[in-house]
Amino acid sequence: MAHPGKGKPPRVGDNPVFRRTLLAFVLVLVALMIVAPLVVIAVEAFSRGVGYFAASIADPDTRHAILLTVVTALIAVPVNTAFGVAAAWAITKHDFRGKRLLTVVIELPFSVSPIVAGVSYLFVYGLQGLFGPALQSAEIKILFALPGIVLASMFVTAPFVARELIPLMQAQGRDLEEAATSLGASGWRTFVSVTLPNIKWALLYGVVLCNSRVMGEFGAVSVVSGNIRGQTNTLPLHIELLYHDYNAAGSFAAASILAGLAIVTLIAKVALERQGAGRVQRPSQLAGADSITPEVKP
Amino acid sequence: MKIRLDNVVKEFQTFRAVHGVSLDIESGELVALLGPSGSGKTTILRMVAGLEYADGGAIYFGEENATDIPVRERGVGFVFQHYALFPHMTVGENIAFGMKVSKVRRSPEAITRRVAELLDLVQLGGLKDRFPGQISGGQRQRVALARALAVDPRVLLLDEPFGALDANVRRDLRRWLRKIHDELGITTLFVTHDQEEALDLADRVVILNKGKIVQEGTPEAVCRNPADAFVMNFLGDANRLDADIRGGKAYVGDVAFEAGGVADGSGQILFRPADVTWREDGHGIAARIVRVIDRPDSRRVLALTGSGQPVEFDTAPEFPHRKGEAGFLDIRRPRAYSAA
């Protein structure tokens, strides 16, 4: 019998030299491209001391920008979540004409530059635009106001939830829903107790991505918001404004808030996953028959 | 509950269509829908369940026209091919699901009691708190059955119930399902493409091809009297030889076989590999051995007839002849049909 020679990898493709090179390459890139900028943000934000940082954050315009960003997310994310679930459900569990077209159209915002989206909103809702005169006479302000910002953010992030759900729901097929219905469950009951629990992690992931993108959206929003300080400036726009004002420390302070919001989102996702994972790993399932865990509540 | 299908039609652009199927299933009967893939058998089952609506015809449950009753209210228990157990619920929760969503209110105690009863029935008493991902395929299949039975269905429908299991588990589960059926006496319809499964399990076998019933009857009837060459081929290995039908006889070369009731003209005879004897005395159809294949309990011999048509037959393991030898095929129980 052949004896494995020294220096040979234990498995094909597990050469230690290759593995270390690969890992080093990835780590260097992560450090340069992801970690370093984040560190710079943190360092620059505090470059003029904690006092200046606090003052930057406490600036009414900055506070307003933070508030506006959060409000935009609070509107855009739930709406897009509902849209994503509905779209994924329609596409994966029903047959209709133009299904493929719809799938492609939903993904369109991914390929369209956000700035193009912003400009097209100008043409639709702007004063010289399609609905401009009608909106003006009705005194409804969409552009250069919150509705425009929310609409532009929603356009850009429309595909996120649907895109996470469609492949999963396609793979799951219709069997579970059919089974639930054949057992007497209503459509709503089937959705809540069968469909939703099986897509919740993908849904959550989609929501998190959608949220980070809404909060960070720059291009489309910068066209439709009008950049009015303290009124229609979202956090990303405000950061740019501060930077152009040669207020580097202030801009980095605001940027650190934005990065902080992103980290909070990520932590929320991980925490929720943990909780879910904990539920799946209940000891009773592994102990089997004679476990003494209490009755599982539905 | 007696089920009656009256000229049921379902159109599809692709295969799976059903063209005018009429069928009676007596109360308490266990019936197999047997056919190759694309023969429409699953579509029929799904129409009986109400998961798909018929484009034409009617389905009766007893005297009631059930054609347009939605699946929720039809009162059927459906066991899916891949079980469709809810992966996020325990075995117990899966079984309880139908009772929890039912319009008939049951107390939690009654549900718990019924779940325990059903788990006993399917012999899975200890697995109540496991998740579907933590039990074997055969166990999942039994959970799926218990879940379907929990809502006290009028009819039990099973789609390829043993399709995803290995051979040994499949045989055990087959016998076990028959036992459950005999205990409960519930009208049961199941779909399979495996003729052995259908013959083993069912009171009556309905054979489908291209969306139509080609034959129905007891396993004995369909085995002994296949209605046409398709049924003969589908039920098991069969040899086929071209023949001329003249005056109630089928001629293969100058050897004549009984062919009562078959129209004159070009035809065929079909016969099983076990119904051939190899002879050297000039009696039968001249042939030459091409290959001998050994099996644990027999030998399978591949031969070519004088006119170049292949024939396979089974012999005792002691069969002494070898490749290249010439002789004669003595065929018993041949069945003659018109050419397809």
Automatic annotation (TrEMBL), chain A:
Its main location: membrane. SUPFAM superfamilies: MetI-like. It is found in: Cell membrane. Part of the ABC transporter complex CysAWTP (TC 3.A.1.6.1) involved in sulfate/thiosulfate import. Probably responsible for the translocation of the substrate across the membrane. The complex is composed of two ATP-binding proteins (CysA), two transmembrane proteins (CysT and CysW) and a solute-binding protein (CysP). This is Sulfate transport system permease protein. It comes from Shinella granuli. One of its GO terms (cellular component) is plasma membrane.
TrEMBL record, chain B:
GO terms for cellular component: ATP-binding cassette (ABC) transporter complex. Pfam families: ABC_tran. GO terms for molecular function: ABC-type sulfate transporter activity; ATP binding; ATP hydrolysis activity. The lineage of its organism: Bacteria, Pseudomonadati, Pseudomonadota, Alphaproteobacteria, Hyphomicrobiales. PANTHER family: SPERMIDINE/PUTRESCINE IMPORT ATP-BINDING PROTEIN POTA, SPERMIDINE_PUTRESCINE IMPORT ATP-BINDING PROTEIN POTA. One of its GO terms (biological process) is quaternary ammonium group transport. Signal peptide: none annotated. It comes from the Bacteria. Residues 3-235 form the ABC transporter domain. PROSITE patterns: ABC_TRANSPORTER_1, ABC_TRANSPORTER_2. It comes from Shinella granuli. Gene3D superfamilies: P-loop containing nucleotide triphosphate hydrolases (3.40.50.300). Belongs to the ABC transporter superfamily. InterPro entries: AAA+_ATPase, ABC_SmlMolc_Importer, ABC_transporter-like_ATP-bd, ABC_transporter-like_CS, Mo/tungstate-bd_C_term_dom, P-loop_NTPase, Sulph_transpt1. This is Sulfate transport system ATP-binding protein. Keywords: ATP-binding, Nucleotide-binding, Sulfate transport, Translocase, Transport.
